[in-house]
Structures are given as C-alpha cells and as structure tokens.
Amino acid sequence: MINRLNCNLADADFEKGEVLLIDKEVKRPSFSIIYKLRKAIGVKKIGHAGTLDPFASGLLIVCTGKKTKEIDSFQGLEKTYTGTIMLGKKTRSMDSETEVLECKSLDGIDEQKIIEAKESFVGNILQLPPMYSAVKHKGKALYKYARKGVEIKREPREVKVKSFKITGINLPEVHFEITCSKGTYVRVLANDLGEKLCCGGYLSSLRRTAIGDFRVENAFMVYDFIDIYNESRKQLVEC
Questions:
Q1: Fewest CB within a 10 Å sphere: which of 64, 114, 149, 152?
Q2: Regarding the domain delimited by 79-211, which CATH topology (the fold level of the hierarchy) does it fall under?
Q3: Alpha helix (H) ranges present in the chain?
Q4: Catalytic site positions
C-alpha cells in the first residue's frame, strides 16, 4: 500500500501490482485520476475501487497491475463520508449538479426533528437507486435516460447505514458524518431525509474520508503523487 506514510516509490513495481491512496479533488471525475496516473507511471492495467461523483471529493483506492484483481475486495468495504444537506429545496439529481426544482418553508424544522428523522435511516434500509446513477437498464446507464427526461422503473435495494451522525446544524444546512455499506447512495439519504421532514432536501457537498481502515488523511493529491514519482525516477537515473 503506497500512501503518505509510506511514499518511497523507488522500489514500486506498478506492472506487478501496487495499491495507492489518492485524494480526489472536487469537480474532477474519478476516471480522470486513472487517466493521469496511467500516463504518469506508464502502466496499462489500472483502476479504482469505487467511484466518486465529480462534485464529491475524498478517498480513492487505486490498484495497478495484478493488484487490479483485488478491486472487488476493496469495493466491498464500508465507507465513511462527511457532507452537507441543504434542506428546503429539491433537485432532480438529489445533489447540486442539477437545478433546484422546488422550494419549501423550514418553519417548524428544528434540531430535535432533524435528529429524530435521521434515526429512520440507520440500520438495514431500502433505497431506490436514483435516475441520475450509473445503474444499468438494458445495457444503458440510468443517467442517460434521466438526461432525456425518461423515468425508468427501479427496484429498491437493501443497504446498511452503520452510523448517521449530525455534526452541525445551521439551517438550511445540516452537516453530517455517515458510515455505510457498498451501494449506499448518500444523496438518496439526503433526499429521503428532506422527504421525512416534509421540506425537501438535497446533498450539497460530499467527501469520502475512509474506506474500511484506509483514511483520506494518508492519501496523496494526484499531482503530489506524480511529482514524487517523477522525482524518484530522476534519482534512480542519476544513481
């Protein structure tokens, strides 16, 4: 595992297989991280264990070479996120990527009601996959239908929310930390919390802070990793 605590790249063998911790920036698609790393280290087999939406930031586990065979095991680990829910408004995508469709009053909404409402989403729960997602229907991602205004019937899926903590309230913003299973849509939780409170809500920010025991504070920003890698290669040549 290559991370900030173990950043000696001199002996790294990316063809044989390495695992990297990368901190994805906001507005950068997950696939662009893979593109930049593939180009920098010159390895063909490379992939990440669990995508992040472009507007989200945080931890990506990246596998190269033969380590790509372990991607499924990393994907199955529980994830921890921090973020912000904007109450009183709804969007088509349930996050900040699409326009606001509806606004409602927050009269009567207080800390106690928010705390009580979020308890409904702890434990094993059913979620309806959002139309703005990569879930496939007849071989085509749902978001492609959504962009054309087409609604596809979906079946609820069971996910597990291990913990859902409210870390701050400054209405209309609600700050949270959540630990959940693979396949959990945090923006669906934001939307459903808003529905539970009868005021609407959407996910306005999201950051993945952990995947299993792997922490984002030990991850590289992609440009930092590339700089360190290039420097290590330069030193090897000079030696």
A1: 149
A2: Pseudouridine synthase (3.30.2350)
A3: 30-41, 71-75, 111-118, 142-146, 186-196, 222-238
A4: 53
